[in-house]
C-alpha cells in the first residue's frame, strides 16, 4: 500500500487545490459562488449552487461535496475493494471507472502512481 497524501482523492485528483475545499477551509462565499457557476455549467447541473460547495476532501474527515459523497462511482469502487485510492488497485491501467479522470487530468495518474 502506498503512503498517499490524505488530500489525494480516490481518483488521484489533489483535493488540496480543489476550489470547493479551498472555499470551505477559508469560508469564502465568493469562491463558492464562482465554483458553483463553473461546475454547474460544466456538468449541466443547475442543482449545484454556492450552498452545495462544502467539502474537506474525498478521503478526509468532515463534510463532502454531495456528488463525491453519494454518487461518485470511483469512490464507491475504492471503498468496496477496501483500498485507499485507485493507485492501490491492480486494475488501474484498464479501469473504465477512473479512466476518464486519468485521461483528462494526467496529474491525477501521477498522484496515484508516484
Task: Tell me what portion of residues adopts beta-strand conformation.
Answer: under 5%
In whole angstroms, how far apart are the ends? 12 Å
The general outline is globular
For the biggest sheet, the summary is: none
Task: Give me the number of helical elements.
Answer: 6
Task: Find the count of extended strands (DSSP E, 2+ residues).
Answer: 0
Order of helices and strands: HHHHHH
Please give the radius of gyration in angstroms.
14 Å
**Low-confidence sequence ranges:** none
- Give the count of structural domains: 1
Structural class: mainly alpha
Bin the helical content: 40-55%
Compute the average pLDDT.
92
List keywords for this structure.
globular, mainly alpha, 114 residues, 6 helices
Write the layout of secondary structure elements.
Layout: H1 19-26, H2 29-42, H3 66-71, H4 73-81, H5 96-104, H6 106-113
